[in-house]
Amino acid sequence: MGNVITLENRVKKEGDVITLSIIISGIFFVLGIIVSLFTGSTSILMDGIASGLFVIIGVVSKQISKLDLKKPTKKFPMGYSMIQPLYYFIIGTLLSIIIAYIGYEHVLLVMSGGKNISLGFSTFFEIASGFICLGFYFYFKKKNREINSTLIKVEAVNMFSDGIISFAVGVAFLTGLLLNNTPLSFIVPYIDPVITLAALVYMVFQILDIMKDGVKSLLHMSPDEKTVRRIDSLILKFRHINPFVSNVGKTVVLSGKKILVLLNVEINSRSKDFPIEKLRELKYYLENGIKKIQDESTVHISFDFFIENGVIYGDKRGVEKALR
User: Fold this and answer.
1) What would the pLDDT profile of 105-148 be if each residue is shown by its tens digit?
2) Which phi and psi angles does 255 have, rounded to 5°?
3) For 31-87, what is each residue's pLDDT tens digit?
4) Does domain 225-322 have CATH number 3.30.70.1350?
5) Which parts of the chain fold into alpha helices (H)?
6) Apex CA 261: angle with CA 255 and CA 263, to 5°?
7) CATH superfamily of this structure's domain 7-218
8) Is 247 helix (H, G, I), strand (E, B) or coil?
9) CA 77 → CA 58, 73, 256, 291, distances in Å?
């Protein structure tokens, strides 16, 4: 039997990975600034600035992850899970504005003839960075198998993206070295600004993807279709094994990092002897089933009883007692 991951355990493991990610990004931020000053490479400078932004995002994400331990309050009756997508949406908007300005500057640089940089050390730095990032990507993936955390998944994707970009830039710089002293050497000054523009376009798509998830949560839109289909399948099985359940009304929406599931179970029993205490069993079946589909979920279940010939088969007081 596998180990049960408690919420406290999950938050601690998330915090450990995010702390490591912050340290790595901080080192790349400092190195990126230093190397760009020596080589004159704008793309390395951009890589360093991106790492600096990941440090800020990581610090805030770590604080946000701790909010999961807080209980709902009158001000936040659904908990604090909505804060994370709101934060990602705001930071995504700000980054988009910054990227648009930097992109404009580099279009002007390409149009004015490009820029010569020191390719030798730049090539070594980018390829070495790529290997380091991909190494941590696989480490983060291994950690995420233990707790299946969205935050760790995001950190792993960031590492993978940084690694692939570093490799691509390194290969481009290596190509520039090979083109020196050849008839195609006129291309070399354009390599750095063009790579920077390509990296900016890639970053825009990454940011839009994060913002899309944030908007879906803020607007309480449905989660992915696979999750919804699995919940539908659970409800269908539930109705099949409980013939006295005539219908199950369902609403499934994103609520921050979690999904919110609202279920209304209609009981159609023609017998006064319907066991009210059985509702607890039904409630547990649905809650446990949905938790297995999506661990980070909040489930609310209500029961309705049909009235036939003026007789109520089930009373509010009995239902409340059964569900305590």
Assistant:
1) 778 888 888 777 777 888 888 889 889 988 998 998 888 887 76
2) -140, 90
3) 988 988 888 887 788 778 778 877 877 787 777 767 766 777 777 766 676 777 777
4) yes
5) 7-39, 42-66, 83-111, 119-147, 150-179, 188-218, 225-241, 278-293, 316-322
6) 150
7) Cation efflux protein transmembrane domain (1.20.1510.10)
8) strand
9) 26, 5, 13, 20
Cα angle 41, 44, 50 (rounded to 5 degrees) comes to 140
Tokens of 317: 């007081």
Helix (H, G, I), strand (E, B) or coil at 303: strand
Tokens of 230: 């699995």
Token pair recorded at residue 156: 């792993």
186: which residues sit within 8 A by CB, 6+ positions away?
Answer: none
Q: What is the dihedral of CA 122, 123, 128, 133, to 10 degrees?
A: 80
Ranges of each domain in the chain:
7-218, 225-322
Q: What distance in Å separates the CA atoms of residue 56 and residue 113, rounded to the nearest whole number?
A: 35
Residue 29, both tokens: 């931020």
Q: Hey, what amino acid is at 219?
A: L
